[in-house]
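Support reply, case 0932

Customer input (verbatim):
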Amino acid sequence: MKRRIFWAAGGALLVAAAALLAAIVWRQPAKPSMDPNNAALVALGQSTYAQNCAACHGQNLQGQPDWQIRLPNGLLPAPPHDESGHTWHHPDDVLFDLTKKGLVPPNAPDGYETAMPAYEDILTDAEIAAVLAYIKSTWPPNVQKRQRRLTEQSQP
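Our regenerated output:
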């Protein structure tokens, strides 16, 4: 009788441990920090931005001229990422997903055409987050506060 209870308890413990391990292994990884006050992160983001983003979005995050007017090919020019643009109108998770996966649903209409590539196979998640931290670090405090509020409101 004691042996049966021992094996039943051991089996239950084994099942619980397996379930816990599965939850740890298969859970959605958290997105890396995009803290604009982290100097090391911002420095990495600035150099990564210069190498991968500045050619279109501008060395000073100013975007391309007339960024809200479609070009003859139907595409929009690259928008600014400084406070004059709309980047800060989006919460962190949207900015991260737009950069990583590109302008695809749910962050853009199905079939939306853009010249911006998805950076999923170009930059690591940490590099994407660092670029976003750098961009956010250039915004005035009131814009950072508004964007941070949007991010907080979008959290489940």
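We compared this against your earlier run and they match. Two observations from our side: The longest helix spans residues 2-26. The helical segments are 2-26, 39-52, 54-57, 92-101, 125-137, 141-154. Please reopen the case if you see a mismatch on your end.
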